[in-house]
Amino acid sequence: MTAGAPGLSARRAAILGAVQGPAELLPVSSSAHLALVPWFAGWDFEGLDAEARKSFDVALHAGTAAALLIGQRRVIAAELRAFDGRRAAVVALSFVPPAIAGYRLERQIEGRLGGPRSIAAGLLAGAAGMVAADTRPQERGPGDAGPADGLALGVAQAAALIPGVSRNGATLTAARFRRFTREHANLLSRTVALPVIIGATALKGIRLRRRGVSSELRRAIAAGVATSFASTLASQRLISLVERDRALWPYAAYRLGLATAVVARMRRR
Questions:
Q1: DSSP H or E stretch at residue 173
Q2: DSSP state, residue 72
Q3: Fewest C-beta in 10 Å: which of 57, 112, 140, 218?
């Protein structure tokens, strides 16, 4: 069986790739935006099977990850120089919950969630969590993360498999609940995200290779990855907006507004 891309032209893929970059760097759920932009625009994606759509989304995340490796190379190099057994435990424990949840529950999540209603619920739940977590004191910084923190970040990443929750938002929320400063919470969020993105990309790549990919889907993926990479590189300064000592409520307010727009459109249909 060959995975095709009905309704997903290279032009539309490029638009979604352009959205992916900034949406991934802010705690507003890139997965929600990748689903809602076509929905609001009225694109016909009915013929695009769930596996091909999810693989396309993961490919966009791979483009983002590649851009982050380049744009944040100095920060990453500094983290690698300080890498030790404790940091390795944090990263490993942050990877295990989403890996298990993704392997066992991914198809159920793809089949039952991902529609506008569940995305709106995820946006609202994530917003509430961010506001509550950001009331916690900023007491912990570089070098303070331990295994328990890694597990908390891993559970957050597993929860972020639900569309609308946001991996960035969930891990920021978990880190702030654990009393990390906003700057270090952001660094932890990006650090633990890369292994999960790489793992998901490898898994989807293997599955697509087994199924076969149509030339149309290949063109769409190439266009999407290219613009995702470019938009992420161009949006690097957005990271500093979250890292600065600023409250998370503006992002929660944006999520609330987006969820409200989704509900309003659903009622009009």
A1: helix 167-177
A2: T
A3: 112
DSSP character string of 6-51: TT--HHHHHHHHHHHHHHHHTTT-HHHHHHHHHHHHT---TTS-HH
Q: Identify the band that residue 53 occupies on the pLDDT scale cut at 50, 70 and 90.
A: confident
Beta strands in the chain (DSSP E): none
**Which residue's entry shows tokens 């009225």?**
42
Instruction: Provide the pLDDT for residue 1.
Output: 47
Neighbour-count burial of 209, counting CB atoms closer than 10 A to its CB (0-12 exposed, 13-18 middle, 19+ buried): exposed
For the entire predicted model, the pTM comes to 0.83
Phi, psi of 88 (to 5 degrees): -60, -40
Quick one: how far is CA 140 from the chain centroid?
24
Going by pLDDT thresholds of 50, 70 and 90, the confidence category of residue 66 is confident
- Residue 208's contacts (CB-CB under 8 Å, 6 or more residues apart) are 3, 52, 55
pLDDT tens-digit readout, 119-169: 999 999 999 999 999 999 999 987 788 899 999 999 999 988 888 888 889
